[in-house]
Amino acid sequence: MDGRRAVYFHTRHEYEALDAARSRMHDPTWTEQYPIRAGVEDTLSQGVRAFGMRQSRYIGLLKTGLQEVCSAVAMNVSRVVHWLDGWPRTQTRVTRFAALAPAF
User: Fold this and answer.
1) How far apart are the C-alpha atoms of 68 and 38, rounded to whole Å?
2) I need a labelling partner for 72 at 20 to 30 A (CA). Which of 11, 57, 62, 94 fits?
3) What are the extents of the domains in the chain?
4) What is the dihedral of CA 42, 21, 31, 100, to 10 degrees?
5) Contact between residue 67 and residue 57 where contact means Cβ atoms under 8 Å apart
6) Is the separation of the CB atoms in 14 and 8 below 8 Å?
7) For the range 10-15, what are the long-range contacts, defined as Cβ-Cβ under 8 Å and sequence gap of 24 or more?
8) Crossing angle, helix 28-51 and helix 61-84, to 10 degrees?
């Protein structure tokens, strides 16, 4: 790309689906379930970033399953070691825009 910006408009169907998803975020049930999802997303992110789980190193279902189990064990061991060493849990990043907002 030569430095020009591109504008993308969602189709009506996509826009309505996004709008419905955003409106569900104000539902109390969603607010209760979101911390569980955030924990799962954090675990998946750690697996991809630290343990290379984006691609399988092996061919075949058995070997791939073994890699997943070994990676899960390694993640748990890593978390236990950090917990025993007293490493503080990291806080969620704040975007530059959110950092401009006054704290209440």
Assistant:
1) 20
2) 94
3) 12-98
4) 70
5) yes
6) no
7) none
8) 100
How many angstroms separate the Cα of 97 from the Cα of each of 7, 22, 66, 70, 93?
Answer: 21, 20, 43, 39, 12
Q: What is the pLDDT of residues 27-83, one digit of tens each?
A: 888 888 888 888 888 888 889 988 888 898 999 999 999 999 999 999 999 999 999
CB 30 within 8 A of CB 20: no
The rounded distance, in Å, linking the Cα atoms of 52 and 67 is: 10
pLDDT above 90 (res 84): yes
Q: What is the DSSP letter of 25?
A: T
Instruction: Please name the residue that has the structure tokens 């999802």.
Output: 37
Cβ-contact 47, 75 below 8 angstroms: yes
